[in-house]
Amino acid sequence: MAKPAKPPVVAELGRPETPEEASIRRDEARRNRRARQTTFNLVIATLASLVLAAFFGILMSNPGSPGIDAVDYRAAAADAQGDVEEPLVAPELPEGWQANRAEFEKAADGVAVWRLGLLTAAGEFIGVKQGIDANPTWLAAQVADTSETGSASIGGLDWTLREGDPEGNLARAMTAEHQGSTVVLYGTADDDEFTALADAVGGELTE
């Protein structure tokens, strides 16, 4: 009859472990496995969240992405043109730009306003407001949170340059007047993008 196997000697103890010690060891091993699994799950969840955040960030910042609804601003301008004699600006946009807003409305103060919302190729925003036969009070309200910083002649128009809150949608602005139109450009785009739009708008109004 074979003799029962002797319990193995545990190196740390220098002797076989007792049943109580074996139970404690097994419990500790289970706790360690659960802790490692929890850490692994947390890392996976964090990575997944970062990937999703990056995806949605790219989706919202890319004007050519399917997350942005492009608007046919030229068709909208043609539809609204019958309501006013002053030509509504619908400039040809630089490559990679697109419109996500185009509407004509009569403001509460009686000033008719043509509005465009544009996204540049870099994913920045520029808004256009064209007030028809606007008064100084209307213009002052549009740039109330900005300060004048200079002037420039672009696209045949004399523009007043302004700056506002760098963290807001009115980070910078440009204003100009031509015949019955008072135009306000505002947004988060850089100087080159503002200049490109001002040149296109001025070319339309002065042609």
- Structural category is alpha+beta
Name of the CATH homologous superfamily of the largest domain = MucB/RseB, C-terminal domain
Low-confidence stretches: 61-67
Termini gap: 112 Å
The largest sheet has its strands arranged as: 3-4-5-9-8-7-6
Task: Report the top-level CATH class of the largest domain.
Answer: Alpha Beta
Shape: rod-shaped
CATH architecture of the largest domain: 2-Layer Sandwich
Number of individual domains? 2
Give the ordered list of helices and strands.
EEHHEEEHEEEEH
Protein name: DUF4245 domain-containing protein
Organism: Lysobacter korlensis
InterPro entries: DUF4245 (IPR025339)
Keywords: Membrane, Transmembrane, Transmembrane helix
In short:
By secondary structure, the chain is an alpha+beta fold. The chain has 2 domains: 9-61; 73-206, Phosphorylase Kinase, domain 1.
Topology of helices and strands:
Elements: E1 9-10, E2 15-16, H1 19-61, H2 73-80, E3 98-106, E4 112-119, E5 125-132, H3 136-142, E6 147-154, E7 157-163, E8 172-178, E9 181-187, H4 191-206
Antiparallel strand pairs: 1-2, 3-4, 4-5, 5-9, 6-7, 7-8, 8-9
Structure description:
The protein is built from 4 helices and 9 strands; from the N terminus they run E-E-H-H-E-E-E-H-E-E-E-E-H. A 7-stranded antiparallel beta sheet has the order 3-4-5-9-8-7-6, sandwiched between helices. It has a two-stranded antiparallel sheet with strand order 1-2. With about 210 residues, it is an alpha+beta fold. Helix content is about 35%, strand content about 30%. A hairpin with a 5-residue loop joins strand 3 (about 100-105) and strand 4 (about 110-120). The chain folds into 2 domains: about 10-60; about 75-205, Phosphorylase Kinase, domain 1. The protein is rod-shaped, with a radius of gyration of 33 Å. The model is unreliable at about 60-65 (pLDDT under 50).
